[in-house]
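Quick look at the format.
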Amino acid sequence: MSASSIPFTVSGGVVLVTGAAMGMGRLYALRAARGGAGVVILWDVDADGLATTAAEVTALGARAVVRRVDLADPAAIAEAAAECREEGPLTLLINNAGIVRGALFWDHNPERDIALTMDINALAPMYVTHAFLPDMMDDAGRPRRILNIASAAGTVSNPRMSVYAASKWAVIGWSDSLRLELEQQGYGHLAVTTFCPSYISTGMFDGARGPLLTPLMTPEDAVDRAWRATAAGRPQLIAPATAQLGKVLRGLLPVRAWDFVGGKVFGIYSTMDKFTGRGEKAGTR
């Protein structure tokens, strides 16, 4: 029986979660520990949050490996990856860390907002995956997975999200291209899932409101959906269903017609009007 035909499990394996100090990153780490992972590697810049998550992971029976890593720094990623590769090939890599700056484009600071958002949201998942991918490709003894957290913002344009949306469009294009490359080159044991959720009530999007018929998802629901899709090797998950509908309609309708439907009917174009976020902690790194 080939690894690609064996049901995926993290039991006894090694899992890496970026942005693991809080929010969904913490929940992914706990899900891995509950699933029997032998080692859960936790990356973030928040040392106190990492310590809390590590204690919870350990209490669930897994060994927590903590690294304070600034994902905006490629050298820091390379150094931490070199250390953590000693744990063995990853069974599951979750590129979860991200930040958001909700503002009109011209109000973005080039370094603090534009460069930082692209570094953490778009480039860091590529650097992290590139560091661990060879070992995951070479060891086909069990199914392995990569989960890349994108956003429904990467499928439809939205005012006050220009740079964030750009970063998530980049993730979607890279992640799905990587999926195809692995499939074409015969690495059937290693599947890539791209998760594109709408707004999630983690605090990262405080003040934002969901479009018509699209309430904010709970972190627990989002993590459960993403985990099950990843285990099944599903290429992409856009959730909830209304976010998928938005993507379809945007592709079918002329631009101005979609502007009316998306902006006036669904209210997508005003969802960030009262965004506040977490201030200086608007996301994890």
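Next, a different chain entirely:
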Amino acid sequence: MSTTSSDASSAPRPEEPLLALASLPGVPDAVDSVRRAVDRVYGHRVMRRRSNEVASEAALRAARGSAALSGADWALEEVRRRSDFGADDEARTVGAALRLTAEAGQLLSIWDQSPVRVLARLHLVAAGGAGPADDTVGRPRLAGERVTETPGADATGPLTEAPLPGAAEVAGRLEGLSALVVAGSSAPALVTAAVVHGELLALRPFGSYNGLVARAAERIVLTGSGLDPKSVCPAEAGHAELGRAAYAAAFAGYLSGTPDGMVTWIAHCGRAIELGVRESTAVCEALQRGAA
């Protein structure tokens, strides 16, 4: 028997899994704190006329922060002045982060329809034709394929030390993540962004640059959700400021899957956004003084 549209609209919907996370103790406070911080920077007088300049600077700081978390901890001015990003492993990581930050804004309209397609594109952009063999770029890894954050480097960190899911598990969980995104949710943007970020860190679906891709996906969610539509709140810079040790500890909370662990990860992501807001607020103040 078919279901009419009125029947469908009146049928009870199962609880959205992200809403369950959003109701955990401590998460509403993190969500409110992030919203207040974002509202403050968007209310700055400089944002009315010079938001493009603030967004450009935020993108640079986001790329620097994401690269630092992947082992290429360059000074901001070094990132700003360099033009050669193929000289060594660190330079390639910084170059990949810069390309991803630029590309993320071009993929907003596709994300809600085909997240896996966007992730494949992000990996293709990160790899940039260098490093991994061409047939591994832009697709989830197959059984037995090696995973490294930066091709040619042996850097260790939370991505390399966490248990690595098998290819079949990766495929299934990517499908589940995609279905969650496509279905949409009324959960706060912070919660959705944190889950997307954490799940991609946990899966490491590609042979390389998974951390960079995960953080770029977080950026896409925060921008596309309307929380940060001008992309002036670089969470990546905040994650870097909190440090790799804190990042790894919070990620361990996500991996645990426990309520407390999930709250720790979501709150950490919220604090990173707030620190990114602080970075952009400083840029606004510098522009207002004519110092930038």
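Residues 1-13 have pLDDT under 50 and may be disordered.

See the schema section for token definitions.
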